[in-house]
Specification:
The protein is an alpha/beta fold and 189 residues long. It has a single domain (3-187), classed as Glutaredoxin (3-Layer(aba) Sandwich), CATH 3.40.30. Helices cover 32% and strands 21% of the residues. It contains 5 helices and 8 strands, in the order αββββαβαβαββα. It has a 6-stranded mixed beta sheet. A two-stranded antiparallel sheet has the order 2-3. The longest helix has 17 residues, at 84-100. It is globular, with a radius of gyration of 15 Å. The protein starts with a helix and ends with a helix.
Length: 189
C-alpha cells in the first residue's frame, strides 16, 4: 500500500521537526525524510520529470493550481509555521518573489502538516505576496512520489516553463542561490 511510506515520512517530519544541515539528496521515488542543507540541485533539461497536478484550497479560502501558471517558471515552497528554517527563509522567498514576478516567475507555497490558524497567523505576519495551499494531510507532497519528492521541511521545487521539475532544494534556501537558479531557469528558451 502506498500510504505506508508516506505515513512514515509524515511521522519522521513530525518527530524531526525541520530540515537540518546534513544528509544526502533522495532519488526519484524515494519518500524517506532527509535533512537538507538548502543547496539547490539543478536538473539537466533532458533529465527533468513533469510536475504532477498541484491544486488546493489556499489559506485565504481561494483555490490555487499549478496549471494556472502554465508557461511560467513556478517556485513551489513546502513550509510549516512551526518550522524554524521555514521562518528564517520566508523573507528570502518574499523578496525574490517580488523581484522576479515581472519576469514571469510565480511563487506558490504549500503549507504542510500545520495547524491552519497557525499558518494563517504566520502568513498575516509575513505577507509573502503569493498564495499558499493548505496541505495539512500532505497530499500535494505525496503527489510528487515517483518524480522529485520534497523530502524535507522546508523544500523548494522550481518548475520550468514546460511544467517540469527543474531544480530542488531540501532545507532553507540561500538568497543568491535561489535568485541565480530562478533566473537561469527563467532565461531558458
Amino acid at each position: 500500500m502506498r500510504a505506508k511510506p508516506f505515513v512514515a515520512v509524515a511521522l519522521l517530519i513530525a518527530v524531526s521537526g525541520c530540515a537540518g544541515n546534513q544528509g544526502s539528496q533522495p532519488q526519484a521515488g524515494d519518500t524517506r525524510f532527509v535533512a537538507g542543507d538548502g543547496k539547490l540541485t539543478l536538473f539537466k533539461a533532458a533529465d527533468r520529470k513533469p510536475a504532477p497536478a498541484v491544486e488546493g484550497e489556499t489559506l485565504d479560502g481561494s483555490t490555487a493550481a499549478l496549471a494556472t501558471h502554465k508557461g511560467k517558471v513556478v517556485v513551489l515552497n513546502f513550509w510549516a509555521s512551526w518550522c524554524g528554517p521555514c521562518r528564517a527563509e520566508a523573507p528570502v522567498l518574499k523578496d525574490i518573489a517580488a523581484k522576479t514576478k515581472a519576469g514571469g516567475v510565480e511563487f506558490l507555497g504549500i503549507d504542510f502538516k500545520d495547524r491552519k490558524a497557525d499558518a494563517q497567523a504566520f502568513e498575516r505576519g509575513q505577507q509573502p505576496g503569493y498564495p499558499s495551499i493548505f496541505d495539512q494531510p500532505g497530499k500535494v507532497a505525496l503527489s510528487f512520489q515517483g518524480t522529485v519528492p520534497p523530502a524535507a521541511i522546508p523544500s523548494t521545487l522550481i518548475i520550468d516553463r514546460q511544467g517540469r521539475i527543474a531544480a530542488r532544494a531540501l532545507g532553507a534556501v540561500k538568497y543568491n542561490d535561489l535568485l541565480d537558479t530562478v533566473t537561469k531557469i527563467g532565461d531558458e528558451k
